[in-house]
Amino acid sequence: MQPEPGPNFPPQTEQVPPAAVPPAAGAPRRRRTGAVLGIVAVVAVAVAGAALGWFLLREPPIPPHEPVAEELGTALGSGDLADFPVTTETSVVPEEQYEAVFAGLVESVDEYQVSLAETTPVEEADDGTASFTATYAWSWPFSEDDVWEYTTDVEFTYSGPDGREPGEWRAAWTPAILAPELESGERLAVERIEPRRADIVGAGGETIVTERDVLTVGVDKSRVAASEWTATAQTLADLLDFGDEARADLVARTESSGDKAFVQAIVIRVSDPDYDRQALEETPGVLLIPGTRALAPTAEFARPILGTTGEATAEIIEESEGRVEAGDIVGVSGLQAVYDEQLAGTPGIHVTAAKADSDDEPRELWANEGKDGEPLELTLDVAMQQHAEQVLAEAGEDSPSAIVAVDATTGGVLAAASGEGSQGYNTAMLGQYPPGSTFKIASALGMLRNGLTPDSTVSCPEQIVVGKEFDNVDGYPASALGDVPFRTAFAHSCNTAMVGQHELVSQQDLHDAAASLGLGLEASRLGAAGYLGEVPADDISEADHAASFIGQARVLASPLAMATVAASVAAGHTVSPMLVVSDETEGAEVPSSTLRENEAATLRELMGGVVQEGSAREALAGVSGVVGAKTGSAEGNDGRTNVWMVAIKGDIGVAVFVEDGDFGSTTAGPIMRAFLTGS
């Protein structure tokens, strides 16, 4: 139903779809759209302009703070502070202050490190300034175990931009940047407190090496005119009885040193009677400086073993990795060098801060008190060692010689003396020589293990050929030739009888028998340089195999090794010698004993025959307590006759050796007798 026309309803008209109604002519619809777009563009340009204006007019942002903190860390590590931006409250120049503060410190370390540890967050103020704190870690390694480490804080400030240019971070420079609580004018110094060098002690804790009074003798060039320097050095060389080489060296060092230099010539004991102290003191230009030095009872006492101390060389300093500094007294040879770190101890390090013109006590910033050295304990019996050295000195042998005594119960080396002919070499423990007929102790053990007994009959002809001809020693008794009991052949040291058993006992058997007596083993408990010999076990020529039975060809031993052989026979088990008493030597793995007591008892019986009726009868006649002995001689590589004697007295095995002698009985025998009798 359609509504009626009325005042509220217009007359009804026909509805035409909008698409069917053509637009009126000149309708402005498209122009209106373009106008809108134009308005939008104008607005956009205005906004962009405003944004550009804001961008151009805004204050530059605060620069990142981490990079500048890192840069200061690098500058502090190098000392190159000239170009780093800082603020100061005084006229101090940071780079100059840095150099002055650390001058005494940088000389004491190879290198030091500075690194950025952390930074606090940046705090911005309303006025555009900002700040943060950086913490730096410092490390000063005086040695591997002495490292001074600390941190310092640095305040950084940002004062805002400079016009349109961004500002920069600046460090607030104070001395405390360099070391904790460091004050203006203070300088750092390092004091090195030298520890006491420890003693070397022997059996029973008896002192061997300790600090003894000495005099350092030299030319003091400041005490004489320059024209007298050379003559003074020559006069001093004469007073000290220097040889040509030492004399020339002293003169050269005197001439090349500074005008006021003290040129050291020698260090002597205050009590040394070999030098005319009064003449030295009265010579113009010669100075004697008192001091102490770690020394043995005498200059000769076990010197090849103990070694010496002296001023550290450049090589020693470099190898110490900071432990040793120029001027330090260190071990330069022998046990003094091997155990230098233990004996020397650890220096104390004190770092202090003080003002150059102040009378105030330096302020301690850091200290490591260090520790004195720890004593080195040896098995040497002081009296026995001195006696052995005296016996060798009285024997007067020009060639190398030695006496070694080993305790069969403990393996401790009681004496290891090298004669004057050794010229400072440790012949006693390091000499390598064919042991000659003393090796027949090992050969005899090999034969016993292959069925022989002391009463077994063996042939002892004048000569025998096994690859080459073997003879008995000149003067061998005719009564002991022919078919004789093995004990007789051993007592008189029949070479041909021993060589004749080359088919019964293999080279491996000889090697194993020697090892059972400690010969050829590693010196695992010695704690010092030592050689225990060598006996080949592999296949060798028939002639060398035969020669091995009489301790020649490729068989080698040291006096220490042969004393160990005698000690093993005395002990009834394989002895491993020990010189240094320490946790390492006492805990070292010891070769298991392959020597049985019944075998050792038989060897003692055979060695007893050598003293009772054989080659050692005259040398050791009447010496009490001697269980047995064995003489020996061998041709050395240089054509010399190396002579030996080993003996057992009580529970001690002893070896005597002379590089150039006649026979074991006639050259080594009297030395052995003098040692065993104490006269």
Bin the strand percentage.
15-25%
Number of strands: 26
Shape: elongated
Write the CATH homologous superfamily of the largest domain: DD-peptidase/beta-lactamase superfamily
Please give the count of helices: 22
Question: What's the number of structural domains?
Answer: 3
Alpha-carbon distance between the two ends: 162 Å
Mind telling me the C-alpha Rg? 46 Å
Mind explaining what this structure looks like?
The N and C termini lie far apart (162 Å). This protein has 22 helices and 26 strands. The chain folds into three domains: 66-192, NTF2-like, domain 1 (Nuclear Transport Factor 2, Chain: A, Roll); 200-346 and 369-376, Penicillin-binding protein 2a (Domain 2) (Alpha-Beta Complex), CATH 3.90.1310; 382-677, DD-peptidase/beta-lactamase superfamily (Beta-lactamase). The model is unreliable at 1-37 and 39-57 (pLDDT under 50). The strands form seven sheets. Strands 1, 2, 3, 4, 5 and 6 form a six-stranded mixed beta sheet that branches. Residues 1-27 are annotated as: Disordered. Residues 402-676 form the Penicillin-binding protein transpeptidase domain.
